[in-house]
Design brief:
Bound molecules: pyridoxal-5'-phosphate
CATH topology of the largest domain: Aspartate Aminotransferase, domain 2
Structural class: alpha/beta
Order of helices and strands: HHEHEHEEHEEEEEEHHHHEEEHHHEH
Number of domains: 2
Shape: globular
Number of helices: 13
CATH superfamily of the largest domain: Type I PLP-dependent aspartate aminotransferase-like (Major domain)
Helix content: 25-40%
Strand content: 5-15%
Distance between the termini: 29 Å
Length: 383
């Protein structure tokens, strides 16, 4: 693949920080994780930021500590990565999907109230592709109905809602630093929140439920036993990963500017092509531009979306699909009784979207090549 779907941007300062960590003798959760946590909580204006080994871990810990009971219903979107609703199922909750809005592919907040039942206890919005959901509407419903809100911000480092960074709205919010995210630690995640007691409990749950971080246990302040109050997970971030995050975060705004520039180039290039639908940015949103999606108008083409994916991959350009919605996946169909007709808008976009390369390591020439190839293939395969 001569233009891969993603390539991370790692410079000497990340490399030197990892080497420094390796030479320091302390590899797991310790001073570098704490530095990264402190910088991240400032970046998103949250009171606490807890370094984890994935966003999935953050979602699970937020769900686990929300006070839900077995069988409670949590409203979320089907247009997401499996982690979002898998953690609900694993915590013995029932995901209730609602359809999405075609303009942004986010959950359609106007459909939330009609899905509330006596068992509903929470809402789990996903800021799809880096575009924030309409959080005032979600938080207003949550307040009126007494529901918890947990945000899946895997795509939304750098996003803002009405000027407030995602992560700074007061809800537990889970971020991903997986290799292709706006900033990366290779694998990693962060959970931000404002509640002191809950943050303390989550810090414990990220290391099995043991009451003290290992680096404190082995510190100079004398030997101390840990105690186990409840069973937790092995979800802590390691300093080797945090070493990358410290420097990636310093570059986040530089990276974002390039993402914005390239996304705008794509928008301009595709605006007059009737077989390509592009997506909108709401007035309230600062879009993190994590993903760049187009939807094909299949009625105008002689090929399916999957055939189009093959054609573009064959020309040396990496592409992806975000997503085949979860109500189309066998597990959720069996478990929740959904079918393709349950959420027609999510079904339509599952069949027609594709994501083009969008990352700061690309050059403007790479963007032009993607545009030319995409438009050329549309011309060749028009009905
Ligand atoms: C919407 C969404 N939520 C959660 C996750 C899980 O993130 P992680 O791989 O860091 O666990 C992803 C991963 O890409 C995602 O796209």
């Amino acid at each position: 693949m001569d233009l891969p779907f993603h390539r991370p941007w790692i410079e000497d300062d990340e490399i030197n920080e990892v080497v420094d960590t390796l030479k320091s003798g302390w590899l797991t959760t310790g001073p570098k994780t704490h530095r990264f946590e402190n910088a991240f909580k400032e970046y998103v204006s949250a009171k606490h930021a807890i370094g984890l080994n994935s966003c999935t871990a953050g979602l699970r810990l937020a769900v686990m500590t929300a006070g839900f009971e077995d069988g409670d219903e949590i409203i979320t979107t089907p247009m997401t990565f499996p982690a979002t609703s898998n953690v609900l199922v694993l915590e013995r909750l029932r995901p209730v999907f609602i359809d999405i809005e075609p303009e942004t592919l986010n959950m359609d907040v106007n459909k939330i109230e009609a899905s509330i039942t006596p068992r509903t206890r929470g809402i789990l919005p996903v800021h799809f592709g880096g575009h924030p959901c309409d959080m005032d509407v979600i938080q207003d419903i949550a307040r009126r109905k007494g529901l918890a809100v947990i945000e899946d911000a895997a795509h939304a480092t750098d996003a803002k809602y009405k000027g407030t960074p995602i992560g700074g709205l007061g809800n537990p919010t889970a971020f991903s630093f997986y290799a292709n995210k706006n900033i990366t630690t290779g694998e990693g995640g962060m959970l931000t929140l404002n509640d002191d007691a809950r943050a303390e409990s989550i810090r414990t749950l990220r290391t099995h439920g043991m009451s003290r971080d290992a680096w404190k246990r082995f510190g100079k302040s004398g030997f101390a036993h840990w105690s186990l109050e409840e069973p937790g997970f092995k979800y802590n971030m390691a300093d080797i990963n945090a070493a990358l995050g410290i420097h990636q975060l310093k570059k986040a705004q530089r990276f974002l500017k390039l993402r914005q520039e390239y996304a705008e180039s794509y928008d301009r290039a595709f605006q007059d092509e009737p077989a390509i639908e592009t997506f909108q940015t709401r007035d309230y949103a600062l879009h993190a531009r994590h993903l760049y999606l187009i939807a094909l108008d299949l009625k105008q083409l002689t090929v399916t979306r999957d055939e189009f994916l093959n054609l573009i991959q064959s020309s040396g350009i990496g592409v992806a699909v975000h997503y085949i919605a979860l109500h189309l996946q066998p597990f959720y169909q069996r478990e929740l009784g959904y079918n393709a007709k349950s959420f027609p808008i999510a079904t339509r976009y599952s069949d027609s979207v594709l994501s083009l390369p969008l990352y700061p390591k690309m050059t403007p020439e790479d963007v032009a090549r993607v545009v030319d190839t995409t438009l050329g293939l549309i011309q060749k395969n028009r009905k």
